[in-house]
Every structure is written in structure tokens, then in C-alpha cells.
Amino acid sequence: MQIALRELNIPVANYFASEVDKHAIAQTQLNFPNTVQLGDVRSVDVSKLPYIHVLAGGSTCQSFSFAGKRNGMTTKENVEIYTLDHYLRLKNDSFEFEGQSYLFWEYMRILKDIKAYNPGVLFLLENVEMGAKWERVLSEAIGIYGVHINSSLVSAQNRKRIYWTNFRTKRVGLFGELHSDIQQPHDRGILLKDILEDEVDEKYYLSDKVVNNLIQHKERHKEKGNGFGAVFHDENKKMQALKVGGKGIDDLVCMQINPSTESGCKQPYQQNRVYNTDGISPALCANKADLLIK
Q1: pLDDT attached to residue 243
Q2: What is the mean pLDDT of residues 52-59?
Q3: C-alpha 145: how far from its chain's center?
């Protein structure tokens, strides 16, 4: 968001961020040292902040994703949460929540508190594509239907997301439902090979032995719920198509190995994938296990 504001030459008097990861905080402060870190979003008190003009966020997506368990926003006892009031009651009663996608309701709590004194506040929320049920829950809570955009149009990453925003809106249908009216970006045709470095230190490469082991045991990984196993991608498409055959290890150029587990909420479905530089890549986790293959 700060990069977008800067490129649009929009001056910002105060920029607040809610983050708990120390590495994310360090990177933000390096690039934007004037950022005021507020810590855990569950503890943010709008009444203690200056007048807010824009609220932007991207609540955790794992419980919504088609590649995850898709249990949505629930308590540990599998009680589904459909409204902000319900969430706040459960929170006040010290219920424990499943995963972290329930933090969407913290975004809504903050948005509601801001609207109490600034009804015209601009907002933007991003999340992963999800089932119709939970997308409707989010849309009805926000009061606007989102627009679906795949970031592969402007990057080398296949990243299908939904954006809810009142920056620009339109009425749709017989009942005039309010929709975000954001134009689809022009496809720039960027592929993974366009952004990879030509010279990479040997320490970032996997051995053929490790690669073969990952491919050999992909079914075992799937049974354990650790991901889809080693997945090959068509070099001439943006889609994450499975490679049926015809190319060997020597043709593979990039692999992600994400050792996370579902309880860790770090996208376990992304691990053990093999990518070709002539394709569009899914998200790569920023950890020490993002590796390249010769």
C-alpha cells in the first residue's frame, strides 16, 4: 500500500501498520521508517489513533483457500462465524478460533469503529479466491461485492485474489447490488524466466538426489497433508498445469520446499513444487527453503 501511495504521489501524514512478524516489521521499517507499528490487530484501538482516511488489509487466507481445509471462520469447536457481532461475543467469552482467517472480523471491527466518525472512509481488503459461501459472508459483512483479479496479468506469479474496495463502485443487477468496479489489468506477459537472476550461488541449489527423492515420495507427502507433492508446470502457459511427461530433472529450474504444517498457518499446500521458468509461478514462501535446481 505504501508503494502504491508513493507512486501516486499521495502524501501521508501518518501510516499505521498492524504486524506481529519481526522480519516483516524489520523489512517495513527499512523501506518506510516512518511507519508506526501497532502490533497485534486484535488489540488495535481506533479511539487512540488520529483521524483515519484509508483502511487497507489482507486477512489471513489459509482457511478459505481451495488448497487448504476450507473450514472458513470457525471456533475450535467448529462453530461457524457469519457476523461481526457473533465474533465479538465469542471473543469476549474467550473462545479459541481455528486457524487465523477469523482475523477478517478484526478488520471489520476496525472498519466499523472508523466509520463511526468517518462514514466516507476508503477501504481495501484482499483475500484468496474461496468458495461461494464464505465469499458471500465476507461481501455481506463489508457491504460490497469484490472483484476477482489474477496477479499473473502483471507479474510472474499465478495469484488469483478477490479485492473488496469502495475506491470505485458500481450498481449491478435488478436489486442494484454494490460491486467494486476495478478494471482488469492489461496482461504484460511476464514469465518466471523474466525475473530470475542469471547468476545464483551454488548454496541455493538442490542436489539431484534430493529432487528425485521429492518426486519419488510425492504420494507420501500428499497422504500426510503436506502438499501436492512435486508438481511440474507447462512452460508455455500461465496456468499451473500438471506436466504429464517428456522432460527430466535437467529441465527443472526452480523448486519450493515449504516445511510448514497446517497448524503453523504457512501455506503447506505450496510445498514440494517444481517450476519451469517459462511459466507463471504460484506464491513462494519467504523462508530458507526456497531453492533453485540447476
Answers
A1: 36
A2: 93
A3: 18
The answer to whether 232 and 242 have CB atoms below 8 angstroms apart is yes
Apex CA 119: angle with CA 118 and CA 123, to 5°?
90
Distance CA 38, CA 293 (A): 40
- Residue among 278, 201, 212 nearest 250 (CA): 212
Indicate the helix (H) or strand (E) that contains 161. strand 160-165
What is the model's pLDDT at position 94?
Answer: 94
Please list the alpha-helical segments (H only) found in the chain.
Answer: 2-7, 22-31, 84-92, 104-115, 132-142, 208-216, 218-223
pLDDT tens per residue across span 191-232: 888 888 888 888 887 788 877 777 777 666 566 554 545 555
Distance between CA 6 and CA 12 in Å, rounded?
9
Characterise 223 by phi-psi region: left (phi > 0), alpha (psi -120 to 50), beta (else): alpha
Q: Is 79 helix (H, G, I), strand (E, B) or coil?
A: coil
Q: Which SS3 state, helix, strand or coil, does residue 151 take?
A: helix
**C-alpha torsion sign, points 17, 148, 182, 187:** positive
What's the CA gap between 40 and 140, in Å, rounded? Answer: 25
- Which residues are paired to 255 by β-bridges? 274, 291
Q: Which amino acid is present at 59?
A: S
